[in-house]
UniProtKB/TrEMBL annotation:
Domain named Nitroreductase: residues: 25-79, 82-164
Keyword hit for Oxidoreductase: yes
PANTHER family per record: NAD(P)H NITROREDUCTASE YDGI-RELATED (PTHR43673), NADH DEHYDROGENASE_NAD(P)H NITROREDUCTASE XCC3605-RELATED (PTHR43673:SF10)
Full protein name: Nitroreductase family protein
Entry keyword set: Oxidoreductase
MF terms (GO), sorted A to Z: oxidoreductase activity
InterPro entries: Nitroreductase (IPR029479), Nitroreductase-like (IPR000415)
Family, per entry: Belongs to the nitroreductase family.
UniProt lineage: Bacteria, Bacillati, Bacillota, Bacilli, Bacillales
Length: 200
């Protein structure tokens, strides 16, 4: 890499092929400060999500955002206890959902795929803005649907914690050793030539 990386990233992530450093420096910390995220900065994340690719340009993704004490308390009520241990300090929580129908009312085959792309764009822009994000699947989907009054034709996917990174020492001890960028399997393990299982 031509750009220097933070030491914690460099010691855990070594790309096999040249890429923009933003893909390496984005990871999912659990330690957050309670510093407020300004409206302009927060909206830039969703502006990035807006431009994600979308099958037939349906743009099925939706985000329900919690910022006030009352809104955050609602989210905390359906998040799994193990996740609440660290995410309660995050000043912003957002639930990613997607519309499951096409424009003619049929089931959409790509709504979840597209919502995942929108979350990826959001996460990269958060990193560009000096924020950290952590998406979690550990929450009660039925409770979330009921509490947030989500219609049946939307699917719930993940709760995203958004904010500024806090010190490792602020985490409960059992999370501290996990507070580092994770590695990834090499491209050779998931890239096939021509048919499934035919590695390059």
């Amino acid at each position: 890499m031509t750009t220097s990386l933070p030491a914690e990233v460099e010691s855990n992530r070594e790309p096999d092929h040249e890429i923009n450093p933003q893909f390496l420096t984005r990871w999912s910390p659990r330690s957050f400060t309670n510093q407020e995220v300004s409206e302009d900065v927060l909206l830039s994340l969703f502006e990035a999500a807006r431009w994600a690719p979308s099958g037939s340009n349906i743009q099925p993704w939706r985000f329900i955002v919690a910022r006030t004490e009352e809104q955050l308390a609602k989210f905390h009520s359906f998040i799994a206890p193990a996740n609440r241990e660290w995410c309660e300090k995050a000043p912003v929580l957002a639930l990613v959902i997607s519309y499951t129908k096409t424009s003619n009312g049929n089931n959409s085959p790509s709504h979840a795929f597209d919502a995942g792309a929108a979350w990826g764009y959001l996460a990269l822009e958060a990193n560009n803005q000096g924020l950290v994000t952590h998406a979690m699947g550990g929450f009660d989907h039925n409770q979330a649907r009921e509490i947030l009054q989500i219609p049946e034709d939307y699917q719930t996917h993940a709760v995203i914690a958004v904010g500024y990174r806090g010190p490792v020492e602020a985490l409960p001890e059992r999370f501290q050793e996990r507070e580092a960028p994770s590695t990834r399997r090499p491209v050779s393990e998931f890239l096939f030539d021509g048919s499934f299982g035919q590695t390059r």
